[in-house]
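new request in #modeling-help
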Amino acid sequence: MNRRSLVSIGTLGLGIAVVLSASIAAQTPASAAKAALAAKAAPAAKAYTPPRTPDGQPDLQGFWTNSTYVPLERAQGVTKEFYTPEEAQAAIKAAADREAEQTEPGTTADVHYDFSQFGLDRSQSKFTSSLRTSLIVDPPDGKIPPVNAQGQKRASERASARKAAGGPYDSVQNMPIGSRCIIMGGSGPPMMNAGYNANYQIVQAPGYVMILTEMIHDARIIPIDNRTQASQGVRQWTGLSRGRWEGNTLVVETTNFNGKNPFRGASESLKVTERFTRVADDAIDYKFTVEDPMTWDKAWTAEAPLAKTEGPIFEFACHETNYGISNILAGARAEEKTKAEQAKKGSN
Amino acid sequence: MRNRFLTRMTVAGIVTCVAAAVTLVTAQTPGYRAPRAPDGKPNLNGIWQAINTASYDIEAHSAAPSPVLELGAAGAVPAGLGVVDGGTLPYTPEALKKRNENRANRLKLDPEVKCYLPGVPRATYMPYPFQIIQSQKHVMLVHEYAGAVRTIYMADQTEAPADSWMGWSNGKWEGESLVVDTKGFNDLSWFDRSGNFHSDALHVVERFTPRSADTLNYEVTVEDSKVFTRPWKMSMPLYRRVEANAQILEFRCVEFVEDLLYGHLRKQPSQ
């Protein structure tokens, strides 16, 4: 990661890490700095034919990132679908400043390691950018649809169960799934910007597409051999994916989630449909549709494009040196002990 | 890659490798030519699994009781003839002592018990399937156990940029064989559940050679001068999971070991 960021793409001010999704580049005026990229991408959008693997699949292989400053949901007060280039730059700068503040030693937010030192802040790596104000493209307001009555009931049951399980540091099971190194952002499905290390490697073989997510070395193997979905008896954190080619688009349907890492409050009956289309040598259009009648009355769709980046992807051994868990729990127990002793003294 | 490999071999190493090569030739099914991948290379794509007791102990071993009383016969160790050439690992005296300590404290020390990444070659013969996804630039080995992943660089080969659990693998085709040269290991993984171990000087060369439509020969040369007095070799067949619906499933075992690792730090109900 460090190496990648060192060789990468320069400063935010220059704006050269920007990769415009081809469709957007074609629709909107680009700033001078982006014009060259847009000019390269725009004609390709019309005529681009993806390379083929030796067995004839459209070739999606390589190293990709979906790092982006575009939020999943449109921000409060923003009513349009696209920013002007100037507005988009301002939104990126505001987000980058917030990230930098988190990482600057001595600031109150500096409770994690130094993101900028380790190149983990988004501005130091390649990130995809578009003028979109939200990744969500449907519904048109750029927001996740309202959670229906069943979804609200489940959310409140989940909240009660969490409360009954005690405080956040009472046991490892009460801590966030990512902190526990079980699963982190990014792998999905759906695949979305993981915050840092938002890197993927795609490798294809006859009958399979494999997507390796850097965060916790999560490899999703997608069969594209028309096999039927597995029994509902087998459920997984990342579900079970089945793929097929529709022209040059890889369509992947995933069900059989175990519901223990509910995507935006979804139930176990979540179905995610992803569409990968290579639209340039250095860009894959990635759209996903989320359906879960137990949570939302209406499906919703987002676009989170992938931009070509550099390899390699290094081993992300997370659990093996997860000293944080022991230290946090031990700290909580020590604090309880101190409090108990103080209370005892006070009562004497 | 080839140059680096050659230049770093000692005379003794060359002699050993020649001896190993002789063994390899005899171990291959004579004349078997694998079906070809679309790029013309031998096609190793598929889901593979070892069927032996190497995961318990790569050396020859007798059947033994379960280390966990409650598991009874379900946790007992089946006997095995061993997969190591010559039967016994050539440990230095100090290393043998450490192996025996590891073995005596296996439940506390075995990385598998803690759901840690398994290292190489252990990942290959654990009792879980793995899938080979063979492309031209990269061959991926995706293991069910702990979701362990190896990227074998067939192009853009470099030295290991840092030590890791699964090492840094560069591969090449030699006739019918995929030959994988792996270095850059940390000293934390084991070879089996019996405490057989290595240092960060570990250098593993694996040969995956098709021997029939649904079997591979898996041959491994292990070099680690900090732990062993000479390079040694193990070999075994790997079997294709031929079920039409075979696939690598999640074995995200971190969740299964949390109470073991952190249970003592759980908040106790107040008295």
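bot summary: The first strand of chain A starts at residue 18 and ends at 20.
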